[in-house]
């Protein structure tokens, strides 16, 4: 490939690459503290080079290229506590979905639609407020209760993603109200209570799906920590060149995702990218790396990604159970002994949430699984 130079001669792409100072461009973008939304507000028609992904990341990203023939699993929790037969059927559905897809949607989960919509609106209000106000929260210090930035792995990933995010640690040591942004403070605190209740309930069902006592996963502190990651994916002028989120699996026990109706989330199922249909009132649940580890691969933490789009902004809030937070115990996690046998020996070494989180953050979202680092 040759690129015309300004004096009319030809210069190779390799020579051009030698002149490209990626670190300087990353720092210049980071220093604006305005994120991707700042680029869109400035009227960019071409995405900066730091956001251009290598071809292997962009496989089948054309809108609606995801396989829609596979029926994405939906678990209806209606009546689960009134009917023991229904409960057994639901646990079976969760067992199958967690072991094959690693994902499922839940409906009739008990969180009112008004709170779901209010939470998404709160996330939108934060990201769309004046940049000077947002800058007060902009940081790469993950020890803080409230962290706003663009791409947590900006300096370590092969290419930046077309999104901005803010992170709130909600448990076990919840933030003081004044530590949260006024534009979304009340709704985040309310949603935190609701999603914590739902998370604990799902951990009971997942314990049963593993053939364990319903409280097993709660008793080993899988539901101890809760962190919110609130994403804003602006409309992208060149969505064919980048991604909203690179393919990855989650470094947690469990994720509960609230998303708007724009779509774009895809799951890698049977080596094909499958669209996760946005369903009003539904929440998307997926198994995280740490739950795959302690279940000794009975449950699967599956890779997923978010496409960039001309449409937008797309809003979502991921609730993570099992992220490193201040004050967290140093409990070591390894495959649960009740699940092991001579025919099914342990496949992973033990690790702490802190060690796993640190490894993942240092690695960044580079398209490889962090679990492989801990496999025996």
Automatic annotation (TrEMBL):
Organism this protein belongs to: Scoparia dulcis (Sweet broom)
Domain Fe2OG dioxygenase: 224-323
GO biological process terms, semicolon-separated: coumarin biosynthetic process; response to molecule of fungal origin
UniProt xrefs under InterPro entries: DIOX_N, IPNS-like_FE2OG_OXY, IPNS-like_sf, Oxoglu/Fe-dep_dioxygenase_dom
Database matches in Pfam families: 2OG-FeII_Oxy, DIOX_N
The entry's keywords: Dioxygenase, Iron, Metal-binding, Oxidoreductase, Vitamin C
Gene Ontology MF terms in the entry: 2-oxoglutarate-dependent dioxygenase activity; L-ascorbic acid binding; metal ion binding
SUPFAM superfamilies recorded: Clavaminate synthase-like (SSF51197)
Gene designation: 2ODD2
Record-stated family: Belongs to the iron/ascorbate-dependent oxidoreductase family.
Full protein name: 2-oxoglutarate-dependent dioxygenase
């Amino acid at each position: 490939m040759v690129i015309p130079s300004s004096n009319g001669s030809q210069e190779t792409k390799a020579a051009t690459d030698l002149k490209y100072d990626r670190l300087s461009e990353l720092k210049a973008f980071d220093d604006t503290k305005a994120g991707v939304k700042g680029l869109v507000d400035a009227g960019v028609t071409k995405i900066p080079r730091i956001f251009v992904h290598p071809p292997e990341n962009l496989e089948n990203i054309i809108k609606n290229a995801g396989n829609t023939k596979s029926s994405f699993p939906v678990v209806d929790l209606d009546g689960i506590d009134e009917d023991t037969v229904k409960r057994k059927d639901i646990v079976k559905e969760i067992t199958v979905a967690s072991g094959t897809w690693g994902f499922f949607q839940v409906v009739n989960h008990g969180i009112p639609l008004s709170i779901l919509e209010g939470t998404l609106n709160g996330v939108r209000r934060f990201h769309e407020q004046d940049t000077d106000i947002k800058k007060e929260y902009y940081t790469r210090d993950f020890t803080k209760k409230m962290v706003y930035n663009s791409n947590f792995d900006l300096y370590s990933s092969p290419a930046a993603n077309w999104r901005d995010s803010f992170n709130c640690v909600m448990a076990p040591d919840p933030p003081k109200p004044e530590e949260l942004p006024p534009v979304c403070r009340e709704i985040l605190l309310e949603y935190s209570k609701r999603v914590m209740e739902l998370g604990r309930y799902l951990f009971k069902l997942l314990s049963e799906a593993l053939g364990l006592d319903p409280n097993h996963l709660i008793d080993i502190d899988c539901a101890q920590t809760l962190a919110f990651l609130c994403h804003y994916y602006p409309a992208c002028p060149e969505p064919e060149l980048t991604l909203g989120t690179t393919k990855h699996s989650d470094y947690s026990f469990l994720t509960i995702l609230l998303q708007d109706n724009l779509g774009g989330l895809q799951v890698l199922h049977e080596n094909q990218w499958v669209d996760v249909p946005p369903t009003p009132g539904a929440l998307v649940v997926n198994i995280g790396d740490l739950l795959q580890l302690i279940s000794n691969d009975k449950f699967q933490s599956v890779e997923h990604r978010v496409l960039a789009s001309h449409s937008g902004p797309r809003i979502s809030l991921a609730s993570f159970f099992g992220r490193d937070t201040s004050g967290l115990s140093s409990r070591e996690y390894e495959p649960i002994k009740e699940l092991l046998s001579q025919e099914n020996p342990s496949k992973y070494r033990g690790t702490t949430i802190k060690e796993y989180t640190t490894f993942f953050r240092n690695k960044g979202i580079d398209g490889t699984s962090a679990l492989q680092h801990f496999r025996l």
